[in-house]
Specification:
about 230 residues, Ubiquitin-like (UB roll), Immunoglobulin-like, 5-stranded mixed beta sheet, two-stranded antiparallel sheet, 1 helix, 11 strands, about 30% strand, rod-shaped, MucBP_2, Signal peptide protein, Mub_B2
Length: about 230
C-alpha cells in the first residue's frame, strides 16, 4: 500500500484475514495498526506482519472390534452364532488447510471372555471352548468356527458273548466232612462203685445203753402254778 506523508491509510487486514480463515487458517497476531499514518521517511518502508497458522480440528474416533463364533454340524440343533463386541477410542487432529490427520493412541486393550461350546446331546464339538482373547484398537475382527460331529452309537451287548458265569463247585473236590468220633476210642465211663467196699452203715443204737428217763415229780411237791 502507499500514500502521501501524513495521510491516513484506508487499508484494513480484516478482509484478507477472513478469507484465510475460510481456507482453514486461524489468526495468531495482526501487526497492522488500525489507524496507520504514512511517515515522511522515503528511504525506509513501513512493514507490518499478520501471523496466521493452520487450524487443527480435534475430534474423537471410535472403533468396534467384533468376535464371532460360528457353529456347524448339528443339524437343526446347531446353535446360533455367538457375537461379542468391544469399542476403542482415540483422539484425531485434522489440519483444516491440508486435511492431514494426526492420530493419538487407542484406549486400553480389552478382553473377549472365554466361551464354552454349547452341549448338544449326541454330538461332540471339535473345540470345547474358544479361549479368552485380548485385543487392541489396532486389531481386526475375530472369527472362529466350532464344528459338531455326531457321536457313534453305543455298542450293544453281543448275545454270543454272555457274561462269564460264576465258577461252579468242583464235584471231584467235595468239602471236607467233620471228623467222626473214633469208635476205637470210646469215651471213658464213670468209675463204678467197688462192691468190695460197701458204704458204711449208720451206727445203730446200743440196746445196752438205755436212754435216761425224765426225773419224776415228788408226791409232796405240787406242781408250781403260774
Amino acid at each position: 500500500i502507499s500514500g502521501t506523508t501524513g495521510s491516513k491509510s484506508s487499508y484494513s487486514t480484516s478482509g484478507n484475514i477472513a478469507g484465510y480463515k475460510k481456507q482453514g487458517y486461524e489468526l495468531v497476531t495482526d501487526g497492522y495498526p488500525a489507524d496507520l499514518t504514512f511517515d515522511n521517511d522515503d528511504t525506509t518502508d513501513q512493514n507490518f506482519t499478520v501471523h496466521l497458522k493452520h487450524q487443527n480440528i480435534q475430534s474423537t474416533e471410535a472403533k468396534t472390534v467384533t468376535e464371532t463364533i460360528h457353529y456347524q454340524g448339528a443339524g437343526n440343533q446347531t446353535p446360533a452364532d455367538n457375537t461379542a463386541q468391544v469399542t476403542f477410542t482415540r483422539q484425531v487432529s485434522t489440519d483444516a488447510v491440508t486435511g492431514e490427520k494426526t492420530y493419538g493412541s487407542w484406549s486400553a486393550d480389552q478382553i473377549f471372555a472365554a466361551v464354552t461350546s454349547p452341549v448338544i446331546k449326541g454330538y461332540t464339538p471339535d473345540q470345547a471352548e474358544i479361549g479368552a482373547q485380548t485385543v487392541s484398537g489396532d486389531a481386526s475382527d475375530l472369527d472362529f468356527t466350532v464344528v459338531y460331529t455326531k457321536d457313534a452309537p453305543t455298542k450293544p451287548v453281543n448275545p454270543s458273548q454272555p457274561t462269564t458265569p460264576a465258577k461252579p463247585v468242583n464235584p471231584s473236590q467235595p468239602t471236607t466232612p467233620a471228623k467222626p468220633v473214633n469208635p476205637s476210642q470210646p469215651t471213658t465211663p464213670a468209675k463204678p462203685v467197688d462192691p468190695s467196699q460197701p458204704t458204711t452203715p449208720i451206727k445203730p443204737i446200743n440196746p445196752s445203753q438205755s436212754t435216761t428217763p425224765a426225773k419224776p415229780v415228788q408226791a409232796g411237791q405240787a406242781a408250781a402254778t403260774n
